[in-house]
Amino acid sequence: MTAGGDAGRCPIAVFASGTGSNLQAMLRHQQHNPLWPARIVLVVSDKPGCRACDVARAAGIPVFAERVAAYPDKAAFEAAVLDELRARGVMGVALAGYMRIVGPTLLSAYPGRIVNLHPSLLPAFPGRHAVRDALAAGVRETGVTVHLVDEGIDTGPVIAQWRVPVDAGMTEESLLERIHAVEHVLYPAVVGELARRWLEEVGRGR
Ligand code: GRF
Question: Residues 43-68: pLDDT tens digits?
C-alpha cells in the first residue's frame, strides 16, 4: 500500500441521516491515518438537509441525498442508490445513523458487506431509542455494537461490542455523549478491518 495514497484502500460508502459525528470520526482516519484501509468515496442520505451531508461536503466527499418520497417506492430509491454505489466502485457500506431499514435491493447487492453501528449491547435494546430504553430499564451498563446488516432490525451477526457504564443520575444526553466517545474510536477501527477484508474478497472474486 502506498502511504497516504488511495491505491490499496477499499472504496466504501457511508449512509447517514443525522448529525454525522461517526462519519466525521471516520473522515478523520481517512485524512490523518495513512494506513486506514477504507476510502469513503460517497455519502448517502435520505435527509438532504442533515448535518451529515454538510460534514461530507465540507470534506469534499460526493453526496447522494434524496428523499425516498421522491421515488415511486423504496425499491426505486434503493435502485438509484445502487447505481451511485456501482458508478463509484463501492465495495462495502457503513451505516452511521442511517434511520431506514435497508431493503433487499441493497442487501442482495452487498451480501455481508453492509455494517451498522448501534448504541446498545445487542440483542438488548434494538430499535430507534436504544439509549432512552436502556435508561428506562435501569441497567447499570449498556454499550455499543457493530454488526452486519440483515433484513431484520438490529439483528445481524455481531462483530464487535464495547461496554459503557451507566451512572446514577445520568440523562439521555450525558449517556449518549459517553456512548459517542466509544463509537468514535470503535467504529473507524472495525470499519477499517472490514474494509481490508472486503478488498481481499472482491479481489478473489467473491
Ligand atoms: C449513533 O449513536 C449510532 O449508534 C446510531 O446513530 C447514531 C448516529 O450518530 N445508529 P451520528 O449521526 O454519527 O452522530
Answer: 999 999 999 999 999 999 999 999 99
Q: Is the pTM of this model over 0.85?
A: yes
Average pLDDT of the segment spanning 133-150: 98
In the chain, the domains with their CATH numbers are 10-203 (3.40.50.170)
Dist. CA 122 → ligand 1 center (Å): 15
Probe residue for ligand 1, chosen from 27, 47, 102, 117 as the CB with the greatest number of ligand atoms within 8 Å = 117
Nearest alpha carbon, ligand 1 atom 1 = 97
Question: DSSP characters for the chain?
Answer: --TTSSTTPEEEEEE-SS--HHHHHHHHHHHH-TT-SEEEEEEEES-TTSHHHHHHHHTT--EEE--GGGSSSHHHHHHHHHHHHHHTT--EEEESS--S---HHHHHHSTT-EEEEESS-TTSS-STTHHHHHHHHT-SEEEEEEEE--SSSS-SPEEEEEEEE--TT--HHHHHHHHHHHHHHHHHHHHHHHHHHHHHHHHTT-
In the residue annotation, 184 being an active-site residue is answered as no
Within 6 A (CB) of ligand 1 lie 16, 18-23, 52, 96-97, 117-119, 183
Which pLDDT tens digit goes with each residue over 161-205? 999 999 999 999 999 999 999 999 999 999 999 999 999 998 888
Mean pLDDT of all residues belonging to the chain? 95
